[in-house]
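A student in our group prepared the protein record below, which I am reviewing. Thanks in advance; the entry in question is below.
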Amino acid sequence: MKNHLIISLLIILFGCSNPIDDDLLIEKDGLKYHPETKQLYTGQTFSDRLEKHKRKYKKTPPFSRSDGDLIFQGYYKEGLRDGLWTYKYYNYSRKRVGYYLNGKKDSLWTYYFKNDKKRCEGKYSNDIK
């Protein structure tokens, strides 16, 4: 857990580059690649498809659970999710927060209700709760 915090702080303080919209990254065989260099992506990413939809249609669409997580921010290391990831509800309150290691859930994950109150939390190791 301490290693995750140190890595996250280093990323925040020094960063690798500007964050890239996750929609722009190229996905192939479960890995994410930089759209210009075609190399495995390492760096910050985000997604806010809700805002894009609002700008296009001037309203908030009726989403269902099958829409997945449209709003998130996190970090990739060599094409895999790594480090702190934060997912949000459509009202931008936290949905779940936790760490990935080599693309798999690792360490403590906290889940929230839409009113931002903690729902539950659990520890993961290699994607297993």
Notes: Residues 9-15 have pLDDT under 50 and may be disordered. The first helix runs from residue 2 to 14. The two ends are 16 Å apart (CA to CA).
